[in-house]
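User: Can you help me understand a structure? I only have the sequence.
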Amino acid sequence: MAMAATAGRASRGMTREEKKVIFASSLGTVFEWYDFYLYGTLAAAIGAAFFTQYPETTRNIFTLLAFAAGFLVRPFGALVFGRIGDLVGRKYTFLVTILIMGLSTFLVGILPGAASWGIAAPIILVALRMLQGLALGGEYGGAATYVAEHAPDDRRGFYTSWIQTTATLGLFLSLIVILTVQNSLSKEDFADWGWRIPFLVSAILLGISVWIRLSLAESPTFQRMKDEGKGSKAPLTEAFGQWKNAKIAILALLGLTAGQAVVWYNGQFYALFFLQNVLKVDGQSVNIMIAIALALGTIFFVVFGWLSDKIGRKPIIMAGLALAIVTTFPLFKALTWAANPALATAQQNTRATITAAPGDCKFQFNPTGTRKPLTSCDIATDFLAKSSVPYDIVTTAAPGTAASVKIGTETVASYDAVAAADKATSSDAAFKKAINIALQDGGYPLKRAAAKVADQKLDAFVAANPELKLDAAAIRAGDKTTVAADQAIKDKLLTADEAAGTPEITVYSVPGAGAFAMFADPEQVSWAKVIGILFILVLYVTMVYGPIAAILVEMFPTRIRYTGMSLPYHIGNGWFGGLLPATVFALSAYKGDIYYGLWYPVVIAAMSLIIGMIFVRDTLGTNLHAKT
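Assistant: Let's start by predicting it. Here is the structure, written out as tokens:
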């Protein structure tokens, strides 16, 4: 991978035409990333609409996996559109990609949910996500190659760094649109139908992007090569079937893009998911904090792109990987203390101890969220992990004995789902309630929602909740509502037998007696600290991502550049990065430690740092016009 000679062209300012090329390519890509990020940002609402048959934690995993489906097909999009781009041209190829991307996103906005279309709804959703992934697989390589082939050799890092801002700006734009819609609607309306509006808005953005890209001319470097008859007739075979080019792609993947991807997705995507779903900060606050951090950090894509024209691409990328490796765990722990100090304090002061029989605790890596825990130990560990509670397992119980959970001074017996048989549902409710009460007593930030109780079940409800010291007579004398029996049965307030032919049911709302939920107290969230930590994570992203387009473009000759750079980029970002949120969440849930899954990005980044330092050569000074 020898460095080509430096071009003889003198350094100069950016021409008007070059500014137009950068603006048009960047703006179109901003809109594409906007489309793609909507799904990740609105994961909770999408999960509720398309995966309603599953509990919240399982919905989160399914939603993330559907999000990951778009990433899984990105390398195939790189192959399809990369080949077309090297055969036909850069301009028309990434014009097609934006049309596919925009239309797929618009259709998500009008797709009925599972309540209307049943299983067909999530299947179509995944299909649309895959179309988006295919389109994005061809988009980035086209935009980066197009801009790079217009740039002077000594300013290519600076020029292409504007393309690198598009992913963050796209996320930023999506957050702004989402926040605007959220502030215009009630919380209930946004969750019900308002989340669809940002998807529908993409139709406007699509029209603007297509209009801008239609005004562009073909890349001069590609056009010159095509006029000279030097283009590749089989880009895929030449790029990956010949070892001299295939080894470059392998080094680009393992030594650069895999590490860049996990730093990027950890710093932007998983940080958002961690705050909202693990630390339980309300979604609107999380979006605002992420948006501020991105606004502060985005300019550093350009700063590090410019710097890479001075000191090289490789040193900056390797430094970003090294910093992320060393500080990922401390930063996420600091994020917990800043965003939910009550949870952090409780985790530090109160650990659960599970006492189980040998062999009762099974390996619970469950990335799809479909497998149900059955043994008493697995039921206990599963619930504690999803509640962000650290625990230790002691296998000293007698064989055949149900596991028990000790939290502070309270001990709660678990149950075996198979042995419980038809009593499993009631046993599960009793177990979780007892654990939640113990966690609340141990300082964990739990609150109880109001409980809706039918009059026929009020006395039993009061007897079942002695810790609340309820008075049935006082409740009956208070506020009440009357609902039709059919609606009460539908809302699972009572069964048809319990309704006993009564046309109307009296329902009481009992404050603080409903389901438990972990939460982050808004008064205790340190916005300045959270934003500061997010900014540092974004800064790492700019270091590894700012110069990546320049180094990838310069590693491959013009005749196979679109194909050659696109595949390692999208395998790295589509597979190593795209699967990160689901993998980290699943690993953390399996281990019972909210930080355990962070080993995934740390290990992948360390792999790229080692391979990159040893085998990847810097490409600063490469003359693209001589490298056909």
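Now, to help you interpret it: The CA atoms of residues 484 and 504 lie 5 Å apart. The radius of gyration is 27 Å. Let me know which part you'd like to focus on.
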